[in-house]
Amino acid sequence: MKILLKSAAVTALLLGSGLTQAATTTSSIPMGVDVPRSCTLSNVSAGIILPEDGSEAQGAFTLTCNIDGGFTATYSFDSTSSYSSSRVVNANGVGLETSGSIQVAGWNLSLDTGSNGLHFIQTWLNNPIPAIVKAKLKSPTTATTPAGVYTDTFRVNVTY
């Protein structure tokens, strides 16, 4: 009987200790990051000074986008929205006609239209796209050209 009681006590002890052991459990927490679509312009020229003799001047910039599937870039001179051709204008509203183009991604696109811009679609994910903007006066200035500072603005508008 003594052995039976001892066995019962050991069995109870073993069963009791088994009931107090912790069960194993796991959990997971999903992780991720949302990178917004973006385009950047870098290496942008400070300005383009048009020579009075009508020779060509140029500026440059680099466009980089992190978008797979493309975007639309519109290149234009501000003056084409007000006039039928691009021009630099002084403070008194006197304008001198200009001619311009952009070389981008192997294309040479005219900026002389009155349509206020050209559309160009790119699909290069994270590849820097260098561009060169060229502009000149259509006719050289003369002694009768009114004095003053003549300006226009070249714009790049990227839609994605």
From TrEMBL:
Signal peptide annotation: 1-22
Keywords assigned by UniProt, alphabetized: Signal
Protein name stated in the entry: SCPU domain-containing protein
Source species: Acinetobacter sichuanensis
